[in-house]
Predict the structure of Nicotinate phosphoribosyltransferase.
Amino acid sequence: MTDDWSSALLTDRYELTMLQGALRSGTAHRKTVFEMFARRLPDARRYGVVGGPGRFLDALERFRFPTPVLDFLSDARVVDEPTLEWLAGYRFTGDVWGYGEGECYFPGSPILVVESTFAEAVLLETIALSIYNHDSAIASAASRMVTAAGGRPLIEMGSRRAHEAAAVAAARAAYIAGFATSSNLEAGRRYGVPTAGTAAHAFVLLHDSERHAFQTQLDALGVGTTLLVDTFDVERAVLTSLELAGPRLGGVRLDSGDLAITASRVRKILDEHGATETRIVVTGDLDEHAIQALAVAPVDGYGVGTALVTGSGAPTASLVYKLVARARETGADAPLEPVAKRSVGKPSKGGRKWGYRRLDGQGVAGGEVVYDYAPQETRDLRPLLRHLVSGGEVIGREPLDTARERHTAAVTELPDTAQQMSRGEPAIPTHFEQRSAM
Amino acid sequence: MTDDWSSALLTDRYELTMLQGALRSGTAHRKTVFEMFARRLPDARRYGVVGGPGRFLDALERFRFPTPVLDFLSDARVVDEPTLEWLAGYRFTGDVWGYGEGECYFPGSPILVVESTFAEAVLLETIALSIYNHDSAIASAASRMVTAAGGRPLIEMGSRRAHEAAAVAAARAAYIAGFATSSNLEAGRRYGVPTAGTAAHAFVLLHDSERHAFQTQLDALGVGTTLLVDTFDVERAVLTSLELAGPRLGGVRLDSGDLAITASRVRKILDEHGATETRIVVTGDLDEHAIQALAVAPVDGYGVGTALVTGSGAPTASLVYKLVARARETGADAPLEPVAKRSVGKPSKGGRKWGYRRLDGQGVAGGEVVYDYAPQETRDLRPLLRHLVSGGEVIGREPLDTARERHTAAVTELPDTAQQMSRGEPAIPTHFEQRSAM
């Protein structure tokens, strides 16, 4: 997407027709608070990982209604003339707070808090949820893979199994969660994610022989490259690699078969030929469980594709964006009142929220505390909300590596149960602290 | 994405480094055939649905390396100077054949056939797979939902649970597979997908009362609108709706609770008040099974979100793009030879393929026939490959409704077993017809 792109139509039609209704009834400019949260963690995970704040801030700044967009809305009769006039001048002027990107979250964590008029805030619902639901799903899955890899580097290589634009966001989210590199070039260009890659079977098959292909790759990319050795016979290919590259060969990649057994055999051959520093990279439908199962195998890195970009069983974080408070009158001073629907099975808690993580004396997280008031801050309460947008101005931008470091710290702080790959309860419980029953 | 956007970096790094190697060894300009196919259907489905050809042709035309893209590749040292020079002039000049959009496919169907030099064809791997894998996953899930709905209209409303750009493609794919409308406005603007929507709980909660909200919506959108009636008490909300709108109310939406029981109660109230034409639309985590379970309930339409955009358990179609033939020398006349890797568990069949559907005397499909030669065409063989790109020129564009009609015809042609929601074998078997053992 280029810089002049408007994000405004990446939106459900009803956001605009609700705006039309509210403009007509005079409720559009009532002050409101919308909150994004998860009712539960996907797939019985131990924690979720916030992905999306950086991309959301970009989308917020591009949320405008230029003439071509207004023309479509007019031609398609989506909204009436007064609504089009209001949209022409749209610019978000409110405040946004949110959990930092890479932070862990739990059921009920107020991941994003948007305070503005109904008209301004309701329009952001779809785009905010699209970005957070996708990026958080990927970051949450990626974090478990990083844990399972136990310090060995992970390459993200799932672009081909995801929508082409989602793939770029997935590479970014995986990097935040601790992946070392991505195969996706646009993620490198747009976000500075380090890129990496080896070669495909097609490259071997193109050439007159495997030897011909290996020699070509070594000539073109140097002895530090990684050769793909499973097109025909793995052991023979490894011997050919060593013959051509010598013991300084960078790496070999295995993409099929029993990876643990094959890696052991390959390691033995490499070591016998003095190639003790040559790395073994494995790929091929790996997920966190397959990665963990390879912990004792002589593997130096993992390439992960499909499981990463599909959220490893949970392709969406299922976050929701709900109205939790609104004024009964228009005006900045009108008091906010909590509101909540009572739909069967989908209850929500009214009122603006403040999220904190409670730490014990050793700095280990013991609980997520969600207040319906701004609490007195104490040393054992780590505040989780950052001020992202102030009076419409984006103030919460940060480098991608800041999010990556935040994630490492947030996971380290959790109790050991967070590292379990099994399905189960959240690693810490969520407590709702209410000043008054509402 | 705007029109000046280049799609070239939506690509894995190794496509470019393989190009660099092949340019150096002189194999880059060997004629090749790459083929896209599925080893198996996702999730033990009965058939897959081809989604993506239209978007792929758009991406192919935008696959260029303008200066900013080359600058990135140079600065990040992805490829060397000779490769950058070659990329600067990149334009696909080969031929592409593919299954029509909306067509059904089976394991081994040659969904896309790309014939060109290695250099030109290998670069398209990632973008082609990203588009087809996403769009086919969504179309395949959507088609089952359309079957389950048995003629009742389906609204696609999953944008908030998918990456914001994937959401637009998902709306398009769902429409091809038979959905009536989408909530996604960009899908309306870009592809002409009809858009629709109702209202959210936030709209009800914003107002002073449910009655206030309903009156506002009726004033703004007219009596034909659909009111959301489950924010507090469904039956009271329906009575309020009828009081305000009378029996000509367009519809009511239910988003929670036991939808079958609630719909029956609501239908009874509506009918008792003469609102026999008022439609009941149900939403709330519906998938094809939930839709089918509501077949006997008095429901007039379904809104489907999460399950649609996540492919209902199969978020990627797992299609692969493999080199199946290549010349041993450069030049247009050099003969193509079939190639195939022998990796454990991932075999592929070498050689260019031609796909046909065999029909019986009643026009019912009996098998997918994949030839490794162009067969004599007969009346019982329906050819499945369309010529999409000829000498680099896109010739296969078609209106979205053509794909939609093709899909209806293709599903109708399948045997009854295709309509089963249970997991199982493909509805028809795939036969590989080989002229010679290769």
